Amino acid sequence: MTDRYAPKPEDRFTFGLWTVGNPGRDPFGPSVRPTQDPCDLVRKLGEIGAWGVNLHDNDLIPFDATASQRDRIVSDFQAACEESGIVVPMATTNLFSHPIFKDGAFTANDPKVRAFALRKTMDAIDLGIELGAKTYVFWGGREGTEVEACRDPRSAIKRIRDGMNFLCEYVKDQGYDLRFALEAKPNEPRGDIYLPTTGHMLHFIETLDHSEMVGVNPEVAHETMAGLSFVHGVGQAMEAGKLFHIDLNSQKIGRYDQDFRFGAEDPKQALLLIRLLEGTGGGERWQGSRHFDAHAHRTEDVEGVWDFARGCMRTYNILKERAHAFDADPEVKEMIAEVVDSTIDPLLKDYSPEKVEALRSLAIDPDAIGATGLGWERLDQLLMEHLLGTR
Q1: Domain 9-328 -> CATH class
Q2: Nearest CA among 98, 78, 166, 177 for reference residue 136
Q3: Whether residue 59 lies in the annotated active site
Q4: Which of 89, 129, 308, 348 has the most CB atoms within 10 Å of its CB?
Q5: Active-site residue flag, 210
Q6: Whether this model's pTM surpasses 0.85
Q7: Which residue out of 59, 103, 247, 266 is catalytically annotated?
């Protein structure tokens, strides 16, 4: 029997080498799983139906690798990708693990650190292009503080801007077909991280010299850590034409960055997110990849990692089916149909003095409107019944 939830290339599911390759290390204990070879990870991703793999530079190439070692590793990895039918749509730089970045990369007070960060990122961009990446993500994991007096936050923002402007010019000068996606996070590993939410990032992007090249990479866990609606953040990014990449996982509000299997903690919000991405509630389907930035629990062995990866993709496809069913439900369609008033709608945009007068002359009974129920309780119950598979 065909499994209708099995992943297909058109689903555009991707995983990071750092996700399925996570050995289960945490601040309180060492690895519980062996370190896996990137080529073996790629082969297994192809076997379970993923479309692509993403990576930090040092997920593939050790920090201290020689040029010849680097070229051999890249060649072997490219061969494994081709053999497995796996593409590399996104790449990024590790600017947080090495001790040189203990107080930031682009925001560090020491200009030598900032210079090293730029050099390392340019090398990693070159690697991404060599592997076929079209999107480059920036997560400023160490770009923050515990001791606020160490720098003026205005200087930190300016340094990030200088770095992004420099790297945009580098990409243009090299003739690369590449877009940047900025990833926000409120805290961890720093006490506070600069540009902590997608909203902060969207504003910051508009201050860049080449803002057209730069969008956002929202992550479920990161926005949820801040107690924010991930669906709203993604919707704002989509409305602005700035959703260049997305990180899917699951998270409990108010906790450390948990990176649980997609949909594991928040199936309702995951369903609402999928409505946006798949366009089931209106609008076009978002054409980017569905990247799972999550990892298996520390309780799992290597086989458990692949149960986790299959689960991410399967949950997405199950919820996608539920989203289609919800938005095709005649009762739902009637309840959320757009209210069109050919008299009032034209008055609500494109200011003119005449429209001011027309608005003032409208006969509107606020008490009658205020006393009318909207039925959102019924709508939410319909959503739950579709989510639970009873409709």
Answers
A1: alpha beta
A2: 177
A3: yes
A4: 308
A5: no
A6: yes
A7: 59
